[in-house]
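Data card: per-record layout.
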Amino acid sequence: MSDTLEKKEAQQRVDRIQAFRDELAQLESEEVLALTAEQRARLNSHLDRTLAELAGRYDVDMSASQRQISLAMRIASALGGLALCAAVFLFFYRYWGSMITPLQVGILVAIPILLLFATSWVSRKEKTLYYTSLLALVAFGSFVLNLNVLGSIFNMTPSPGAFLAWGLFALALAYGFRLRMELAAGLVLVVIYLAASIHSLSGGAWILVTERPETFLPGGLALLAIPALVRHGKQPGFLPIYRLCGLGFIFLALLVLGNAGQLTYLPFAKKAVEGIYQMSGFAAAVAAIWIGLRRHQTESVNLGSAFFAIYLFNRLFVWWWDWMPKYLLFLIVGLIALILLAAFRRLRDRTAKLETA
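The structure for this 357-residue chain is written out next.
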């Protein structure tokens, strides 16, 4: 079992203990249950000892204030990593022109390697991943910057292969140090590489890949298939990231194509293409919600629900904006929002029943 999974289970047990104590206090205040002094002492001693062991071994949050501090630490870690990336960039910008080419190449090669060693060393010393995440982010930023600079030094022709290199480096960091942010970045970059390659093979310039949103659909589908085909026993927290990234690419591509049918590869009229992708968007959102409910995948349900609403409101504005009085349009949109709110509430209640079943 991985450290991440163990810490998650430890945090869940801490939450259950705290909820148990709160409920026990409520039951005693309502005179539903009364413990003897000996029973309460034994219970408190056991719970305190369990909490102390969990806190010492996994550095879990013992209160709501500690959770807020942990969130602040994660934000500070991300901001610190971005600031250090900026520092590396500004250092290059300030002194780069005064260095000879061999020294430039040596620095470019050495910095990501040194940062990788530092990340590895820190990951073995800390229970949490705050400093590890910070250093990994700086290593990733340095690798991205350095590959660009090396290309400029040797006058290399830009190619989508850079996205693949960046993506693989980010995935190596993610799986090596159990980092979700780097996993998401790596998946996005690899899908961009795949889309650019498909566009290039079809005869287009890879840099104009966003002009063909359909090229992102295979990568999105592949990300959805990976959780079903590849076991992540040591990193179960990675699976929702795959699903979110995959669904995100699919939903965004369908949204764009539903409004700009001229960007398609399909040999149909613009309106026909838009109709096809509009229906596909609604169908994909409903499928994500349905499958997410059946498999207890909260992220799929949430993202599917959000894009179903986006597709619906987008269509309403496109259909009615030009000819309907604006006050009436917004009134109808508001009423539909209330209907959706009620539907999503029922959906949430059903999800809660499934999770407790």
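Known properties of this structure: Residues 212-357 form one domain. The longest helix spans residues 64-95.

See the next section for split statistics.
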